[in-house]
Amino acid sequence: MESPRPASSTGPADGPWLVVGLGNPGPGYAATRHNVGQMVLDELASRGRLTFKTHKTNATVAEGRLTPGGPRFVLAKPNTYMNVSGGPVSQLLRFYSLDPSHLIVVHDELDIPFDTIRLKHGGGHGGHNGVRDVIAAIGTGDFTRVRVGVGRPPGSSAAADHVLKGFSSTERTNLPVLVADAADAVEQIASDGLTPAQNRFHAR
After folding, report:
1. Structural contact between residues 82 and 130, judged by C-beta atoms closer than 8 angstroms
2. In this predicted model, what pLDDT tens digit does every residue of 19-54 receive, in sequence order?
3. What residues correspond to the site Stabilizes the basic form of H active site to accept a proton (predicted)?
4. CATH code at position 161
5. 81 a known binding residue?
6. Is 202 labeled as catalytic in the residue annotation?
7. Does 96 belong to an annotated binding site?
């Protein structure tokens, strides 16, 4: 599949990149595996010294460039629970008059080992309920995903319980690097396109 065309830093027809971090609202979920997508958005906002603010689309949003002259970003965290993330995403696309090809969704992924990221454009939801709801709400899977590996639970533990728990002490040691890698991937997708980012991160 063709890599999405990088956004121009000045062309109004291109508009900003909408980057959505999936997760659940509230401090009780903030440090769980399911919220790693929102951790990545916090890292991106920190790089650009951007501040999240309440937005009319039922999300908190930070807007701006992460580097001088670089692509413009709208970083968004839905205020809804994971399984109903699609409504805010659809509203954000309409509000900013963006095509889904300018949407990057960052989310946890059970089927990828911890400390690994995988990047893709298009396709199905892969069993991820947040992605499933986004596809249903916007009517297409034609958007880019940054899939952050959290790994499957050991033994017969339930996957639903696994993603709603915090990271292990060993995982917490490596978590900042994983989050930084995913943030780097978002930046490279926006500046260079998907294929160069895949070549960089999938080779690890």
Report:
1. yes
2. 999 999 999 999 999 999 999 999 999 999 999 999
3. 108
4. 3.40.50.1470
5. yes
6. no
7. no
